[in-house]
Each structure stands twice: as structure tokens, then as C-alpha cells.
Write a structure and sequence with these properties.
Strand content: under 5%
Oligomer: single chain
Low-confidence stretches: none
Largest sheet: none
């Protein structure tokens, strides 16, 4: 079951009902190689430093090489996958964290998540309005405490102009 659910993370419905292939070393290797090729494509498309991308791809290629012809994958493969995971979180051989992962959603991805959560995709505009209302409330609260627009902009990590626009915005 873990094999199928793992492959479905990457391949979706294409990997549905493949749990039976896990027992066959040849078929299991084929699926793992497909996954590694896809992960290599994804690593190549990452927006990161050339050195970081190279380290990620080297780890994936080493796992792929170790899997070729291996009837029973060794602990070396497990350790390499752990190293890959650690590299994705930005760690280097020195134990230093040299990169910080960042995640965001495109509008299409946000729409898809709303469908999976069984919520109305048309609510995005209302949420944005709510966020603006909240920011306006924070600005109003800080003004009552005696802070000027400059200090509020520092607190909110926004421009002074943005704070003024929030303060002047009608429709609260």
C-alpha cells in the first residue's frame, strides 16, 4: 500500500492499483525509475542556485544508478534519498542551512485546492477583501495607540504609501 500511495503522489491516477507490482523487483524498479526521472525534471525546473540544483540532481542520479539492476535496494539508496530530502530543505555537507525552501501557488493550483477541499472557488475575491479588512483594522488599532504611518509601515513590513491607502480605503 505504501508503494502505491507513494507513486500516486507523483503520478496520480496513472499509479492506481499498482500495489501488486511492488512484489516484482523488475516492475518495482521500473516505477521507481519513472519516479526518479520525473523528480530529475522537477529538480531541473527549480528556481535555485546552480550549485544547489547540481547537488539535488547528483543525488537523484546516484539513486537511479544504484537502482539499476538491484534486485533488493540497499541501505545506500535509503541514505541517498534521505540526503536528497535534506538538500531539499537546504542543508549542506557542513550541516549549515544554505537554502530556504519557498512554496507558493499559482491561481490554477489554488483553484484545484479549493475543489479538493469542497469549497467554492469563487470565494477567493471575498477572502482577499477579508484580508484587506483585517489589515485596515490593524492599521486603525495602531493609529489609536498613537503610531504614525511610518511606524505602522515598519510594523506591517509595508510601504508608508500602502499604509496610507489602507487607512483611506472606503468600504469597511
Amino acid at each position: 500500500m505504501q508503494f502505491e500511495s507513494t507513486m500516486r503522489l507523483l503520478f496520480g491516477e496513472k499509479a492506481y492499483q499498482i500495489a501488486g507490482t511492488e512484489a516484482n523487483p523488475k516492475h518495482r524498479r521500473e516505477w521507481l525509475q519513472k519516479a526518479l526521472r520525473e523528480l530529475l525534471r522537477l529538480a531541473n525546473s527549480l528556481d535555485t542556485t546552480p550549485r544547489h540544483k547540481k547537488m539535488l540532481m547528483l543525488e537523484l542520479e546516484a539513486v537511479s544508478k544504484a537502482l539499476k539492476g538491484a534486485a533488493d535496494p540497499s541501505w545506500d539508496i535509503v541514505y541517498r534519498l534521505f540526503r536528497l530530502s535534506m538538500r531539499l530543505f537546504g542543508f549542506d555537507y557542513t550541516g549549515a542551512r544554505c537554502h530556504t525552501p519557498a512554496y507558493w501557488q499559482t491561481p490554477d493550483q489554488r483553484h484545484t485546492v479549493r475543489i479538493f477541499e469542497n469549497t467554492d472557488p469563487s470565494c477567493v475575491h471575498q477572502e482577499e477583501m477579508d484580508a484587506i479588512s483585517i489589515r485596515q483594522g490593524v492599521v486603525e488599532h495602531l493609529r489609536r495607540k498613537g503610531l504614525d504611518d511610518f511606524k505602522i509601515s515598519l510594523v506591517l513590513n509595508a510601504s508608508e504609501y500602502a499604509v496610507k491607502k489602507l487607512r483611506e480605503r472606503p468600504g469597511r
